[in-house]
Design a protein that fits this description.
By secondary structure, the protein is of the alpha/beta class. It has twelve helices and twelve strands.
Length: 429
Amino acid sequence: MDHTYNLLADKFNIDKRVLDLVMTAEKDVASQFSDLDDIMAYNQYKILEAFQKNRLSDMHFGWNTGYGYDDPGRDAIEKVYADVFHTEKALVRPTIVNGTHALAITLMGILRPGDELIYCTGRPYDTLEEVIGLRGQGNGSLKDYGITYKQVELLPDGSIDFEGIRKAVSPKTKMMTVQRATGYGWRKAITIEQIKEWAQFINSIRPDIVKMTDNCYGEFLDINEPTDVGVDVIAGSLIKNPGGGLALTGGYVAGRADLIDKIQYRMTCPGIGGECGLTFGQTRTMFQGMFQAPKVVNGAVKGAVLCGRAYEMLGFEVCPGPYDKRSDIIQAVRLKSPEAVEAFCRAIQYAAPVDSHVTPIPWDMPGYESQVIMAAGAFVQGSSIELSADAPMREPYNVYFQGGLTYEHSKFGVIRSIDELLKNHLISL
């Protein structure tokens, strides 16, 4: 420990008071880390069992050309995802460009004109607003196709408003959705226990309603996934948790076979569905990334817990709290000033293995309502499972910290951010 302490102080010019504070925070959350290690081990063996069940071999790492008919690697990765998430079927494709795309084909594949979609966790993540038609110029949104939308806000304590949901349901309601992660909200992530209660409640009202969960940032944070507790379909990104930092791109959808069949026709076109589509040699990194994902997610969530405790010790509001149950890898810190947000994000960029010499600045990022600052010196561009931080430049100036391919790197992000705030006289120790 002394060698590491001295290295950080001497080679990275970290103030020793910052190192002492983070070491104290780390000791405070040791019991949390032990619990997270148990979850990691469970998911590691669950994934191993799925790989062995599907007789994974080197032949699954090759790729076809043209239409991609009968691609054994593509078929195998989709069977593995279906087994890991305990679903009837899955789509796992490098041609799904991000989590928003995975969610969009899910919504647009299942919903039809005249149907109603209800979000049960308040307003969705910024990039989905244009998909739904809450803002933007249409461009093929759900609203353009005559699909109506409602949202039920969470209760003040962050729990699901079941009575509000009951009142919102109408004869047109076809799908109800929960967003597991916080997005740019100030709330705890929705837990598996809450999702189970929600799914049971929807079934008690209208069992025909499709229950969907936005699973981005939430995979392998629990021994169960939403599809283990009554959810019909989930969607997410491969450059977040399940790709393990190795998947170069892609997204997934997993759920009931009849729903996946509809979604696959939206992914490509009617008559083609999931029978075509190249994997472009990406199955090796997709498989290997998933195999490593529980360990990578474990390091990221430990880093988030440490971040919450360290910033709590500095007197900042944090969400979730360091001792709260986690259901995503995101740690929000309320910094209260644009200067502090920019300093925090600069530090995360300077802590990166790639592009550490670059200084992030706020900009008008497509799909977002406010200017956004994003810090991510990643091996895979935009990979949120790698150490990163971002924030909308609006009051009350919350910053969202996530990722880290290893716990040690995530920890260094926490150290570097506090040191940057201290050196810019934005905090005192």
